[in-house]
Amino acid sequence: MPNMHFPTVALVGKYHDTGISAPLRAIAQILRDAGRHVLFELETAQNIGLTEFPVASVDEIGEQADLAIVMGGDGTMLGLARQLAPYGVPLIGINHGRLGFITDIPLEDASTAIQRMLDGEFETEARSLLQSSVMREDDTLVSALALNDVVLSRAGLSGMLEITVHVDGLFMSKQRADGLIIATPTGSTAYALSVNGPILHPRLRGLLVVPVAPQALSNRPITIPDSCEIVLTLTHSTSGRNEGASVHFDMQSWSSLQEGDRVVVRRSAHTVQLLHPVGYSYFSTLRRKLHWNQMSGSSID
Q1: Are strands 230-237 and 161-167 parallel, antiparallel or unpaired?
Q2: CA torsion sign, 240 to 136 to 192 to 89?
Q3: Which of 77, 219, 265, 299 falls between 20 and 30 A from 29, CA-CA?
Q4: In the chain, what are the domains?
């Protein structure tokens, strides 16, 4: 077919979700009937006992697929988005979890939505990623991508952290807090929202810097251009132990921070391409997920 959209489509399901086999197989059959070559992510196939479709690792999906359909919650999408970002494979999210800010297609609408999107009825949205590294003097200890946020936080029962913040080499602040969040617009509805950070529309080119339980109430969230480089330096731990802090890149954790270590955060050169059905509205998603439509008995969707 000369102008076929997405000749090869990969399917990925939420790990160990017992209710996901039937809807995944139904989507796979829709894709096969539409003449697409279907790949199942290896662990997804093993989890649901699938043998009737070819399987592939995430790297093989990146190299071979024109589209990846993710069925699960936002956590499933976050993990796959980070891994596929260097390959530029666009993603469709079907919500089989709870909140679903980025897995935005309800399961009951998935069949119709997928068929229309295969026919070219879709909208494309680019989401920014963070590239972050932990530095100890001149050595890079760990590097990782994050779609939601990078969080420097106290570990376990340790005391408050003292964190020095530089933006593009300029001193911004020194604050004592339980932690500090650097969030993308996508991540503004995640951990940052729970500590009173603002919501950033995904088309904004900004980053959030949000303190977690700061000692001084004057330490407030701030939005800065996403062209900036942010450096967080762990200057003191009130626990008196160097192991009192950890850094989290979305769901990935690294907990061997010492005083003097630096967490360097900048916008990644990669983006995540999300595909939505025609008529998708970010505000509609916010209304549904944050229940903005329930004031005064309103039920407007």
Answers
A1: antiparallel
A2: negative
A3: 77
A4: 8-121+278-297 (3.40.50.10330), 129-269 (2.60.200.30)
